[in-house]
Amino acid sequence: MELWIPITIVAAFLQNVRSLMQKQLTGALSVNGASYVRFLYALPFAWAYLLILSQLPDQSSTLGGIDGRFLAYCLMGSVGQIVGTAALVASFTHRNFAVGTAFSKTEAMQAAVFGLVVLEDLIDARVAGGIAVSLVGVVLLSANVRLKEMFSQNGVAGLGILAGAGFAIAAVGFRGASLALPEGDFIVRAATTLAMALTMQTLIMGVYLKIREPGEITRVSRVWRRAVWVGVTGAAASACWFSAMTIQTAALVRALGQIELIFTFATSVWIFREKIVRREVFGVVWVVAGLYLLIG
Predict the structure, then answer these.
(1) What pLDDT does residue 153 have?
(2) How far is CA 277 from the centre of its chain?
(3) Where are the alpha helices (DSSP H) in the chain?
(4) How do residues 242-272 score in pLDDT, each as one tens digit?
(5) pTM, whole model, 2 decimals?
(6) Is the CB of residue 32 less than 8 Å from the CB of residue 279?
(7) Residue 76 and residue 175 in contact, taking contact as beta carbons nearer than 8 Å
(8) What is the predicted pLDDT for the residue at 144?
(9) 49, 68, 176, 239 from 188: Cα distances, Å
C-alpha cells in the first residue's frame, strides 16, 4: 500500500472528529468565530510540531527555502481554506451534519481542475472515473434539495459547493507551497507549510473578526477548554493532509478523503441520532465504489 493512502484515511477520520467538535461550538460562537477556532487553537501545535521535526538531522534547512513563490501558494491555500471552513460550518445550521459535509465533497472534482490549471497535475482515466462515481453518490445524498436552493444564499447545497471550491483551492495551494520548498523530507515540507498557513489564517481572520464582529475574539477565548481540542485534532488532521498532498496530487488525496463521508454518517446516526433515508444509504454505496476505483 502506498504511504499516502493510510495518511489520507487518518486525516479524514481526524477531520470528522474536528468537525464534530466545531459543530458543538456553533451555539456559543458565530459561524466565523467557530471557524476561527479551527485556526487559532491549532497554531501553537503546528509550530511545536515543526520545531520538533526541525531538530531532526538534516531538516533544519527547510525554513531557509521560504521564498515569495512559497508564500504566494500559502496565501492562496490559506484564503481558500478560510472560505471553505466558514461555508462548511454555516451549512451545519441548515440541514443535518452528514449532508452539509457531503456537498463539500465536490472538492475532489474541483481540485482536479484547479490542480491541472495551477500545477499541471494530471489524473488518469481510473482516477477520473473514481471521482465521477463518488460524485454520483454525493448527488444521491442531496437529491431532495431543490435546484433553486443550489444558488440561494442560505441554501445548504450552495454553501457546500462553495466549501468544496474553497477546499479544492486550498489543497492545490498547499501542495504547491510544499513543492516550492527546495529541501527537506515530505513530512518537514508539509509541517513548514502548515505552520505558515495557520499563521496567515489566524492573522487574516483575526483582523476580520476584530473589524466585522467586535467581541467575537473574546468569546472565542472563553471557550478555550473545548476549543483547544478542536485545535489539537485540526492540527493533526492538517498535518496528515499536507503530508499526503506533498507526495500525491491534491485531486487524488482529496478524492480518497471522501471516506470521511462514512465516518460522518456514523456520527450522524450514532451521536446526533439524525434520520438517514434509503437514498442517502445508496449515496454512500456509490461513494465507496468510487473510492474502490481510486485505490483498487
Answers:
(1) 45
(2) 26
(3) 4-23, 31-40, 43-54, 68-91, 97-104, 107-119, 125-141, 156-180, 186-212, 216-222, 224-247, 250-256, 260-270, 278-295
(4) 999 999 999 889 888 878 777 777 767 776 6
(5) 0.84
(6) no
(7) no
(8) 55
(9) 9, 19, 15, 10
